[in-house]
Specification:
The chain is α/β, with parallel strands linked by helices. The chain has three domains: 18-142 and 225-241, no CATH class; 148-194, no CATH class; 256-457, P-loop containing nucleotide triphosphate hydrolases (Rossmann fold). It contains 19 helices and 14 strands. It is elongated, with a radius of gyration of 33 Å. It starts with a helix and ends in a 5-residue tail after the last helix. Residues 301-482 form the DNA mismatch repair proteins mutS family domain. It comes from Fervidobacterium thailandense. Pfam families: MutS_V. GO terms for molecular function: ATP binding; ATP-dependent DNA damage sensor activity; mismatched DNA binding.
Length: 488
């Protein structure tokens, strides 16, 4: 499920190797969760700040990409030229963000510390030397002029001696192609090559003999600033990708009117309230067309038993319950307009598996072994999500096993979301159990509403409604049979 969600969040190629690990390490304490929540609060409340930090993360990835590319280039001048470009992009990115952050209101300790570090860094000798050298060498190289004489099978390189510039003459010759009609008709993308071919490399070699000091400056720049990338800023830019990628996802769903909120979290209080929540994966895949539900656990309630017709949204609801806690544990905003959540020390799931023919174990035995493993790890601060366990055995046995399991879970006092076909489990007199039901349309019980509400399980009533709709009640069948003519 998490992998499926990340496919929707990390949509840009560079994001996955950078940010994925951040999504796979939930936090275990409220202090660290709140640290991240404060950062999200700043970004949610200031769109320009979010855009600025997104631009910073993307430009820093461009710098890293160029640096990786330089290691694969064959010609030294080509390699060092791109290295200089990486340095220039790095400095301009740092400078732009530093200026922006000086004039923006920030409240989170994380971003305040980042701004303070950035201010110290741009004033450091190391950075000022890099910036100065980068601008100097780049301007000198940009101002280099030389003459190329192209003849069949021959290229001549010579010093520039105020020869006539042909650019104006060429532009005049092709003036008609600058007209709007021609521009649209002949427009195409010209890809910029990163490497050199052997002819370009030979031209550069000749240039080095004509203007050796220019290339000496390039060599010195490379040697002096070979490791210019600041490790702390590099690390922060990767971490910020975690924040910006998630908020981009939130904003995409928000454009469809779906709410997200920063939840209140607690390590002690197990009372929970999530209003207008929804499955973000389904929302992303459906273009925002999802049913919203509430999750409510009152004081003392621990075990949500979810019943109702098949394909009514029960499994989605239980899965969402686990996902809400997972996202909250990452310090992320969660789907919903309001949220108060317990911070579990672990989330354990038991979903139905297909029985394997080659296995010597029955499906029931496999269920029991998996449950034993989960109960051996779970604590009173854990969250358990069960889906249709004991479905392979007889109803009587499943009910007996289910009641035994509820007793164990009650003693453990952990939080549980349990999808089951056994109505009796939801009607327990145990005060820790709360019954939730997947609703159907009151006019047509065959139509699922995908709404989940707190109410007493009515499995038999639902079955009777279906039977009545299709004329299959006992009375209707009896009446039809009595009206049939006897077989001759």
């Amino acid at each position: 499920m998490i992998e499926e969600l990340l496919e929707e969040i990390l949509t840009k190629d560079y994001q996955k190797p950078i940010a994925k690990s951040w999504y796979l390490q939930p936090l275990k304490d409220v202090e660290n969760v709140c640290y991240r929540q404060e950062i999200f609060e700043d970004l949610v409340n200031n769109q320009k700040l979010l855009e600025s930090l997104r631009d910073f993360t993307e430009k820093m990835e461009d710098v890293r990409r160029i640096l990786r590319m330089t290691k694969e280039l064959g010609y030294e001048v080509n390699k060092k030229g791109w290295f200089l470009e990486a340095g220039f992009l790095y400095c301009s990115t740092i400078e732009k963000l530093s200026i922006f952050l000086r004039h923006v209101e920030i409240n989170s300790s994380g971003l305040v510390n980042f701004r303070n570090y950035l201010n110290r860094y741009v004033s450091s000798v190391r950075y000022t030397a890099l910036k100065s050298d980068c601008e100097l060498v780049r301007n000198i190289i940009r101002d280099v002029k030389y003459v190329l004489i192209l003849q069949p099978g021959q290229v001549t390189v010579k010093e520039y001696e105020n020869e006539e510039e042909y650019a104006n003459a060429i532009e005049k010759t092709f003036q008609k192609f600058k007209e709007e009609e021609c521009i649209e008709k002949y427009r195409f993308n010209l890809q910029k090559a990163t490497g050199m071919n052997h002819i370009e490399a030979r031209i550069v070699e000749f240039l080095k003999t004509i203007q050796p000091k220019v290339f000496q400056l390039l060599d010195e720049f490379f040697e002096k600033h070979e490791t210019f990338l600041d490790e702390t800023l590099d690390s922060i830019s990767r971490e910020l990708t975690f924040y910006t990628s998630y908020l981009d996802f939130v904003n995409r769903l928000g454009a469809s009117g779906l709410p997200f909120t920063i939840p209140k979290v607690s390590e002690k209080d197990k009372e929970e309230l999530i209003i207008n929540t929804f499955d973000p994966i389904l929302a992303a895949k459906s273009g925002g067309h999802v049913v919203q539900n509430d999750v409510i656990l009152k004081p003392g309630e621990r075990i949500m038993v979810i019943t109702g017709p098949n394909q009514g949204g029960k499994t989605t609801y239980a899965r969402l319950h686990g996902l809400l806690h997972y996202l909250a544990g990452l310090g992320l905003p969660v789907p919903g307009s309001e949220a108060k959540l317990f911070l579990p020390d672990g989330i354990y799931t038991h979903f139905e598996r297909q029985e394997k023919v080659e296995s010597q174990k029955s499906k029931l035995e496999d269920d029991l072994i998996r449950l034993k493993t989960i109960l051996g790890k779970a604590t009173q601060n854990s969250l358990l999500v069960f889906n249709e366990i004991f479905s392979s055995t007889a109803s009587y046995d499943a009910t007996l096993l289910g009641k035994e399991l509820i007793a164990k879970l009650s003693n453990l006092d952990c939080l549980v979301a349990w999808v089951t076909f056994i109505d009796e489990l939801s009607n327990s007199e145990n005060g820790k159990v709360v019954s939730l039901v997947a609703l159907v349309s009151p006019e047509d019980p065959s139509i699922r509403t995908f709404k989940i509400e707190r109410r007493k399980a009515e499995g038999k009533a639902h079955a009777f409604s279906i039977a009545r709709k299709y004329g299959l009640t006992y009375e209707e069948i009896k009446r039809r049979l009595s009206n049939e003519s006897p077989v001759a």
